[in-house]
Design brief:
The protein is an alpha+beta fold and about 325 residues long. Helix content is about 35%, strand content about 25%. It is built from eleven helices and eleven strands. Strand 3, helix 1 and strand 4 form a beta-alpha-beta unit. The radius of gyration is 19 Å and the shape is globular. The two termini are about 20 Å apart.
């Protein structure tokens, strides 16, 4: 019989913010995933994981599902043998660079932690949530999951000795516009997007990106949007990936002309995200980005949003 259950929700997110590749993440309140985890209590439970998805394009096997991988790892570490049922209600479309797998993974980590009263600290929960990125990216990375779980702007501080996540509260008046193009994206799209990146880059480009990333952190620390957006200028990752996005240059130029302070690829793309200081020009920027995609006959959806507070329990 079905025992107790917990439901959690986690928001979409954007990663990199230009020069902060694999380090920066920002939670967004535009879309969210819900994950319900229930346990079956019986002598023959056997530690099985059953997954029900609202989106049939999402894998139903635990070994290839972001939420399933998270729960599987937590079950192993805490030696829990109950069988688990995971219900995923997708609100974040997969494959578009707005943290779809991360949202499911973060919500699963929060729900499973609560279901078994494991009292795992937030830093460790992010590490568990990162297990889910193996399903989409082939490797664990923390930018999207840390933002989705913790909320706000998060820096993944990765050294040889430790892994920590530094959360900064975004400025209250920061407004984001996301343009999500209707494109056919390959399975494991993040792996594809990583495959086009250069192995070697000029030192001057590294210096440029370090300068930009430092400026972004300073902007969030001082809650100065103009400083944040001055740092969003990537000369390494975007130049390697922009050919994967139809109308990239048109979308970016349109958004800037309509009043955006900065525009960049959201995560691995193909979505693009614009940064604004107020809501005043947000609808004009959204329309301009949509028009930019339409120049190559690509339809898109746009969302005007703000930073999210992160994952939370619903029940």
């Amino acid at each position: 019989m079905i025992g107790e259950s917990c439901i959690a929700t986690a928001p979409c997110s954007t990663a990199n913010l230009g020069p902060g590749y694999d380090v920066f993440g920002l939670a967004l309140d535009a879309l969210e995933d819900k994950v319900k985890i229930s346990r079956r209590i019986s002598p023959s439970a056997g530690g099985k994981i059953n997954i029900n998805n609202s989106d049939q394009s999402i894998p139903s096997k635990a070994e290839s599902n972001s939420a399933g991988l998270v729960v599987k790892k937590m079950m192993q570490d805490f030696e829990i043998s109950d069988s688990i049922e995971i219900e995923i209600i997708k609100g974040v479309p997969p494959g578009y660079g707005i943290g779809s797998s991360a949202a499911s993974a973060a919500a699963a980590a929060i729900a499973y932690n609560s279901l078994y009263d494991l009292e795992i600290d937030k830093n460790k929960l992010v590490e568990y949530a990162a297990e889910g990125e193996l399903a989409s990216a082939g490797i664990k990375h923390y930018d999207n999951v840390s933002a989705s779980l913790l909320g706000g702007f998060v820096i993944s501080s990765i050294t040889r000795e430790s892994l920590q996540f530094i959360r900064l509260e975004p400025p209250k008046d920061l407004v984001l516009v996301i343009a999500v193009p209707s494109l056919a994206v390959p399975k494991k799209k993040t792996e594809v997007a990583r495959s086009v990146l250069p192995n070697l880059v000029p030192l001057k480009d590294v210096v440029h990106n370090i300068s930009g990333a430092s400026t972004i952190v300073a902007g969030f620390a001082t809650k100065d949007i103009e400083t944040i957006t001055r740092g969003i200028d990537d000369v390494i990752i975007e130049s390697a990936r922009k050919h994967l996005i139809p109308s990239y240059d048109n979308v970016k130029q349109n958004a800037i002309s309509a009043g955006a302070l900065a525009v960049t690829i959201s995560g691995a793309g193909p979505s693009m995200i614009a940064f604004l200081k107020t809501h005043r020009n947000s609808e004009a920027v959204a329309a301009a980005m949509a028009n930019g995609f339409e120049k190559t006959r690509v339809k898109s959806k746009t969302f005007v949003c703000r930073a999210s507070e992160g994952a939370r329990l619903l029940a």
